[in-house]
Write a structure and sequence with these properties.
- This protein is an all-alpha fold and about 100 residues long.
- The chain has one domain.
- Helix content is about 70%, strand content about 0%.
- It is elongated.
Length: about 100
Amino acid sequence: MVVSIIVSLKVPPHKKGSSKEVIMVDPLEAKRLAAKQMQEIKAKEKFKRQRQIEAINGAWAIIGLTAGLVIESQTGKGILAQNPFIFQLADYWSNIVNFFVR
């Protein structure tokens, strides 16, 4: 018994601008284009990471400012008076300036 199978391949006509279009490119040019695209991707990732870091830094600054204001309302001391190191630093700089101004 012989079975014959007829296969009909219906290939759709090629459309212009199709995403499956094959373009022949010089290997060196393809490598250059890939390197350029990789640099653009890395630059976008770096910018995104910097924005995340700035957002985190801003959040910590707001938390610190809020804590300082809460302590100021409870103790009556201003934010600068809460940290004696700031006054020591101011004295340090005034001593340096006085040394050179004499």
